[in-house]
Amino acid sequence: MNKIPFFIQKIKKIIKNPFSLSILTGIILFLCFPKFHLYFLIWIAFVPLFVIVIPEQSLSKVSLYFFISGWVFHSLTLNWLITNMFWVGGPAFIGYQCLSAGLSILWAIYGYGFSKYGKNISVISKVYTSGLLWVGMEWVQGHALTGFGWCNLGYSQGPDIYFSQWVAIGSVPLLSFFILTVNMFISFTILSKQGRWKYLFHAVAILFLVHFLGSYLLANTKNQKEYDIHVAIVQPCFPQEMKFDPIWYEDMVRWTIQYTNSLIENKNVQVIFWPEALIMSDYKDKEILTLIQNFTREKSLHLITGTTRMDSEGNDYNSCIWVNTEGEVVNFYDKVHLAPFGEYLPLSQFLPFLRSILPYDVTAGKEQKVFTINEQLTVGPLICFEVLFSNMAYNLRKQGANLLAVLTNLSWFGATNALSQELEICRMRAIETRVPIIHCTNTGISGLFTPSGSFFPANTIIGKNKTLVYEPMSDYPEIGIRLRSGGIYKVPQPSKYVLPFNPDLISLFLSLSGLITYILLLLKKRRISNENGTNG
After folding, report:
1. Among candidates 32, 30, 108, 21, which has minimal Cα distance to 76?
2. How many C-beta atoms surround the C-beta of residue 511 within 10 A?
3. Before 10, cis peptide (omega within 30)?
4. Which CATH architecture does the domain made up of 227-492 adopt?
5. Distance of alpha carbon 488 from the chain centroid
6. How many CB atoms lie within 10 A of CB 484?
7. Domain-by-domain residue ranges, the chain?
8. How many whole angstroms separate alpha carbon 154 and alpha carbon 175?
9. What DSSP assignment string belongs to 396-440?
10. How far is CA 419 from CA 37, 202, 261, in A?
11. What is the pTM of this model?
12. For 19-53, how does the pLDDT look when each residue is reduced to its tens digit (9 = 90+)?
């Protein structure tokens, strides 16, 4: 009989433990992201952490609690990086944990600043300034060094189609600002003995306003016209082992042509998209180039495909090419923003032992390009990792692109959560730029994003001589990850800009505003302390 109360006491003790609550916040945040994607939990995810750090006086403890939450969150959310152990062994796990810890250190620094306010700052000032500082932290994550904003809180909110429209105003960190402020107001509602209804009102008001105004932003993307042009995506689903073996290079191109012919048979298609690195050798290889030229001439269509490209000096590029209806390679784009430790080795002169993992570097391209297919269509290509950077997508629209094409190869990561997480990042680029996006991957979930962020997955299973159309059960048809599939789409026109400049600049402005406000609040705190000391 006494065991049940003892068990309950044990549970209560665990729940009240600050380390348990820190871990709980990390776990809830992880659940907000794909694959679980319980995105609505984001509005309470930080409450367990905030209820212990708000009253805590020790700066070091607050920093530690933030670090623990961040480390649990990043370790779980980025667990797909563990799959790299299959390719390079133990160092991949070390790199995965170094990245998780590095991102969590930024959380710890934020926590240190969070706890410096003192008690003489009003709750309202503290909440909104803390939200602005979080925007600054995420902005740093996305831009410092090579930039890795993969785990920015806002990327979890794609299914909330009203709220996610705010990225067109202030990019993804703006969503995180609202998320942080609501969580803090809820936490102060729990902790405060006075004024709790005022704090709850702020939380509810923010939730209502961001969704109400988001519905207005969404309405501006409706009733968009379409171009009189059809494009097709082919997801060939080649395992990475094949892509490493030169004996398959020509066969993969030949088979992809067969899959494409099956998909577009008796269809009116003008442009075909193949994924990143579909051509593993230099596209100028005689046999492969002949296959492509004969295909585009025979079908009288344009082809945009990922390929390896080598220049006259022997530099190796991760590229895509545009082949026109005459079989001519009209233009190419070399990937500008390379993936560290995947395509190049940072500080290689100081880390020579890592050359066993990455024996050579891919060369970075010099500039972004657009492919003007005809009077109706201008395509702006992004290759894999580049989808993470809002400024790159914005620059392509600025150059005249009315369709973005994300070409990627996710076969490195199997059926992990990397695939659906990357898809959510792509969704945010479509909403930010108000430009439709073709998402074409070797394995994963290919499809089309509209300027509002709606997704239409590729829903045709492709064989060499036949196809089968199936109805996806959701926006994320997991069944499609391992399928050889494709889709044909009529291209929607872009929506009007919400702002006449890059939304990422709003995030930068908010970050600087938060920093300035924070400094002013600290100066105010010091002045009050000095006055109290003088009076004493």
Report:
1. 30
2. 21
3. no
4. 4-Layer Sandwich (3.60)
5. 25
6. 22
7. 15-116, 123-220+509-536, 227-492
8. 5
9. HHHTT-SEEEEEE--GGGTTSTHHHHHHHHHHHHHHHHT--EEEE
10. 13, 36, 26
11. 0.92
12. 999 999 999 999 999 989 999 999 999 999 999 99
